[in-house]
Amino acid sequence: MKMRLLIGLCMTLLARSATAAPALYNCAFDSAFEKEAGLQAQKKPLVRDYIYDPVAGGGVIIGNDLDVLVVKGGEAISFVTKGNEGSVDSTTIYLKDQKDNKFPAVLSVHEIRGALRPQQWYGVCTLSQRG
Q1: Residues 46, 115, 31, CA angle at the centre, nearest 5°?
Q2: Hey, CA dihedral for 40, 46, 47, 50, is it positive or negative?
Q3: Which of 33, 41, 57, 60 is most buried when burial is the number of CB atoms within 10 A of its CB?
Q4: Buried residues in 57-96 as b, exposed as e (16+ CB within 10 A)
Q5: What is the pLDDT of residues 67-87, one digit of tens each?
Q6: CA angle 124, 40, 66 (to 5 degrees)
Q7: Where are the domains of the chain?
Q8: Rg (Cα) of the chain, in Å, rounded?
Q9: Alpha-carbon torsion 76, 77, 79, 80, what sign?
Q10: Can you tell me the distance from the alpha carbon of 53 to that of 42, in angstroms, rounded to the nearest whole number?
Q11: What is the pLDDT of residues 18-55, one digit of tens each?
Q12: DSSP-H helix ranges across the chain
């Protein structure tokens, strides 16, 4: 069901004009903050891809079948998901401070596995496709 929804969304997005084209953000988070360890550089970055559809005001996280709430403002865009246990994860991409098509981003993970295990990941997102 989710795959059909994703395929339908992709087909709809491809049919739109360039002015209202979807945005694909490829993100690589290479530093993580954990309560016990503090801020640590990661040997292998956490990679996630986000699609934002400006006409519908919604989006998807590629490879993730959770519902996504997109919050778009003048300076940033955020993608929020809700886990089955009631936790939320959010990614905020700061659109104002881009250099060489790289936008600063933060991913907050509120993982629950018997206890709350929060993490924050820092990195950059590249706007790789629009239209």
Answers
A1: 25
A2: negative
A3: 60
A4: ebbbbeeeeeebebeeeeebbbbbbeeeeeeebebbbebe
A5: 899 999 999 999 999 988 888
A6: 55
A7: 2-130
A8: 15
A9: positive
A10: 31
A11: 457 899 999 999 988 776 777 777 778 899 999 999 99
A12: 2-15
For residue 48, the model assigns a pLDDT of 95
Strands (E), the chain: 23-34, 38-53, 58-61, 68-72, 76-82, 88-94, 102-112, 116-130
Contact in structure between 70 and 79 (CB atoms under 8 Å):
yes
Q: Residues 62, 53: contact at Cβ < 8 Å? A: no
Q: Would you say residue 17 has pLDDT above 50?
A: no
Which of 56, 113, 122, 130 is CA-nearest to residue 91?
122
**Euclidean distance between CA atoms 25 and 34, whole angstroms:** 25
CATH code at 2-130:
2.40.160
DSSP 26-42: EEEEEEEEETTTEEEEE
